[in-house]
Amino acid sequence: MAEGFWLLRDFLDSGGLVLWSILLVTVLLWTLMVERLWFLARVFPTEAVQLQQRWLARADRTSPAARHIRAAWLSRAQQHLGRFLPMVRVLIALCPLLGLLGTVSGMIEVFDVMALSGNGNPRAMAAGVSRATVPTMAGMVIAISGLFCLARLDQQSRRALQRLNDRLRFE
Questions:
Q1: pTM of the full predicted structure?
Q2: What beta strand segments (E) does 77-119 contain?
Q3: Residue 21 to residue 37: CA distance in whole angstroms
Q4: How far apart, in whole angstroms, are the C-alpha atoms of residue 127 and residue 133?
């Protein structure tokens, strides 16, 4: 266990401060996505049943006022389902940009080595190239995996809202 921690720390150090920033963004991103998955699986179904019971308990479900109430409830449910998704989208877009920042900072390090010692120090240049490529790879991996999860969240949210819409029938 401790060896794995040190390996992770060495990996993060190989990418510099930018890779640590990507780790922070990743933790926030996946925390929000896991919360949304939890909400869709455990919380929203209960809320949907309660809304359906409230709707069925109404004596009037066909008047224009009842239609407006139904529309307001569905709108509120849509807001609950979409909560944090804009932030998730921003964090997903931020990951490749942070990776690009790591690329630029790593290449600056390579050019500094070349300026100080010429082309004769390949080991120092390799460290800079590593510092340039590792954050780029990490940012892309996080963004791609985040996009897959976001697509699933969007799909599940739309389906849950459609099921709720079907349950709140006019009679």
A1: 0.86
A2: none
A3: 24
A4: 10
60 in helix, strand or coil? coil
To which H or E segment does residue 82 belong?
helix 64-82
Measured from the Cβ of residue 144, the count of other Cβ atoms closer than 10 Å reads: 12
Q: What is the pLDDT of residues 36-56, one digit of tens each?
A: 999 999 999 999 999 999 999
Spell out the residues 6+ positions from residue 22 whose beta carbon is closer than 8 angstroms to its own: 15, 95, 98, 99, 102, 135, 138, 139, 142
User: What is the distance between the alpha carbons of residues 22 and 139, in angstroms, rounded to a whole number?
Assistant: 7
- What is the rounded CA–CA span in Å between residue 111 and residue 76? 54
Angle at 64 between CA 63 and CA 65, to 5 degrees: 90
Distance of alpha carbon 150 from alpha carbon 152, whole angstroms: 5
Cα gap 143→28, rounded to integer Å: 13
Say how far apart CA 87 and CA 106 lie, in whole Å. Answer: 28
